[in-house]
Amino acid sequence: MKKTIVRAVLTTTMLFSMVLGQNVITNAAAVTPVVTATSTATVKPAATPVPIMRDNLSKYGLKKDLELPVTVTAGGLSYTLEKFMIYDFKSKDAQNLVKKYDYDSFSAMVSNPKYLIWTKITIINNSNKIVKRTLDDRKEKWTLTLQRFGQIDEIWPKANVKKLNNKEAYYYYNLKPGEQLSTYQAYLYDKDINYFVIRLYHDGGFDEKFVVKSPE
């Protein structure tokens, strides 16, 4: 009888131990942290915007007092010079523009040009009158000067002679009150560059700004 009781106790103890062991293993598996794969991809830094090249005045030894764009206003007309690039007249850049827009290689003031100057401009008519440059009214309202008595001379794109308010290179424009035009204009120049002033004359008004001040 005693042997039977002892054998039963031992069997019960063994079963209890097995159950307890299974619970320990199960619980251990439950708390074991799951290792997840981490991404090895690197985040690329944001691209730095490329600055807009608005002029090359430093190439000619000029230190700017004003950064482009520069705006002058007079008589309800606003003129903004956004870009001013000086090219040697015989350079590839200059000759490409001459051929593309059929520019003359001379002007009323410049017979043997040293430079072709390429500008981007925006004009806005804030007056209550029409502002225009037409066949019957060719008088220019703004001037760009690079030395004393050295006003640069505009040339006109014969390729666009019949196109009004052309945005690539204008020949004629006609702006009603509130209208504006962003376009390009070319000049010839044959002298040294000492300073740079923008002047605007319109409807009795006048304004000027020095991009590069006179050394005098």
Topology:
Elements: H1 2-31, E1 70-74, E2 77-88, H2 92-101, E3 115-125, E4 131-133, E5 142-145, E6 153-155, E7 173-175, E8 180-189, E9 196-202, E10 205-212
Antiparallel strand pairs: 1-2, 2-3, 3-8, 4-7, 5-9, 6-8, 9-10
Distinctive features:
216 residues, alpha+beta, five-stranded antiparallel β-sheet, three-stranded antiparallel β-sheet, 2 helices, 19% helix, disordered N terminus, signal
Describe this structure in words.
It is a single chain. This protein is an alpha+beta fold. It has 2 helices and 10 strands. The protein has helices at residues 2-31, 92-101; strands at residues 70-74, 77-88, 115-125, 131-133, 142-145, 153-155, 173-175, 180-189, 196-202, 205-212. The strands form 3 sheets. Strands 1-2-3-8-6 form a 5-stranded antiparallel sheet, with no helix packed on it. The radius of gyration is 39 Å and the shape is globular. 19% of the residues are buried. Residues 1-35 have low confidence and may be disordered.
Overall radius of gyration: 39 Å
Largest sheet: 5 strands, antiparallel
**What is the succession of H and E elements?**
HEEHEEEEEEEE
Q: For the largest beta sheet, what order do the strands appear in spatially? A: 1-2-3-8-6
Helix content: 10-25%
**Low-confidence sequence ranges:** 1-35
Share of residues in strands: 25-35%
- Dominant shape: globular
Q: Tell how many strands the DSSP assignment holds.
A: 10
CA-CA gap between termini: 130 Å
Helix segment tally: 2
Overall pLDDT confidence: 84
Structural class comes to: alpha+beta
